[in-house]
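Incident log, structure service

09:12 report received: a user says their structure output differs between two submissions of the same chain.
09:20 pulled the input from the user's history:
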Amino acid sequence: MFEENNIQKKYVNMADVNFMTMSQSRDPDTSGSSIKHADIMSLLFFAYRDFVGRPDEILASMNFGRAHHRVIHFVNLNPGLRVSDLLDILKITKQSLSRVLKQLLDEGYIEQRPGPVDRRERLLFMTDRGRELAARLAESQAARIDKALNAISPEKRETICRFLTEMVDESERQGLQVVIK
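09:34 re-ran on a clean worker, output below:
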């Protein structure tokens, strides 16, 4: 499926170095397709590595990590998101979110407001500074997505969205409509 000279050499760890060896170990083909599970798994790993690469660099320079990126992403897309809903989206503990959220609040990227009806609710909003960071983090990712989508037909774009949706646990798919607008 891959030709070595089509892969830009970005060795991050031994999994990257051993890529060609790994893709040669084929799983049994039960669907009649020439696409193998190992190839798809490898593609997902490499796509994710490159997708988060530039944002990781930006975040690292600020002493932030991927957890910060996820919080920024979902709060930016959903102004007024309740902390409890963010916990459900990210599937992390309150303790894990607390550390990350505290940093983003303390450094002025996110602000927290009480709910209009239930003052105990904590609603999250991006500050101007936070929106600027969210845009900066999304810039390279949007460009990468645009480049990939421009290389395929509109029909195949729908197939990609369907495939990614099917990768999400079935019990979580209905909730995607709330998060993905």
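09:41 both user submissions now match this output. Likely a transient worker issue. Closing.
09:42 reviewer note: The domain at 66-132 is CATH 1.10.10.10 (Arc Repressor Mutant, subunit A). The chain has three domains: 1-51, 66-132, 151-181.
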